[in-house]
Write a structure and sequence with these properties.
This protein has 150 residues and is of the alpha+beta class. The chain has a single domain (15-148), classed as Roll (Nuclear Transport Factor 2, Chain: A). It contains 5 helices and 6 strands, in the order αααββαββββα. A hairpin with a 2-residue loop joins strand 4 (96-105) and strand 5. The longest helix is centred in the first third of the chain and has 16 residues, at 19-34. The N and C termini lie far apart (62 Å).
Length: 150
């Protein structure tokens, strides 16, 4: 019983993550892509980072994603994702956070979702999933387009 009380007290006393700082962290990550700053874009990613892109085969670890992205960064501009709305959720201990965001992109509205973890090196991106938004009533037309590519 005493262990449960200490656990509950620890969770209540766990520091609450600073949402504004986390927003700035993710906003800066997106900004580094728009400015083609390769090192600054990949530095916030944990070594175990996973990126899910919009195409069917786009699931990369950090090394694979860097190899894919390097030519885009080398041309002086990678991609520009402008967050319009972001929602955060946190683990009980405040050391893991996950978010979803609506993005204005060249693909029009997209949604990204990600996971960040507080490490001994500060917050690190662990996972990011980017997907294009499509209304349910447009799915049939979308599927026809996909079928044409086969």
């Amino acid at each position: 019983m005493i262990q449960i009380l200490f656990l509950a007290a620890g969770l209540l006393l766990a520091p609450k993550p600073d949402v504004a700082a986390l927003d700035q962290f993710v906003d800066n990550w997106h900004k580094q892509a728009a400015e083609a700053n390769f090192e600054a874009y990949f530095e916030p990613m944990d070594e175990n980072f996973v990126y899910i892109g919009t195409a069917p085969g786009e699931r990369w670890n950090k090394t694979e994603f860097a190899a894919f992205a390097k030519p885009y960064f080398d041309r002086g501009r990678a991609w520009e994702f402008k967050p319009k709305d972001r929602k955060w959720n946190f683990s009980a201990d405040g050391k893991t956070a996950w978010f979803d965001e609506v993005l204005d992109t060249w693909m029009r509205d997209c949604r990204g979702s990600g996971v960040v973890m507080l490490t001994d090196k500060g917050w690190k991106l662990m996972f990011y999933d980017l997907h294009v938004l499509i209304e349910n009533e447009k799915i049939d037309d979308f599927l026809k387009l996909r079928d044409q590519q086969k």
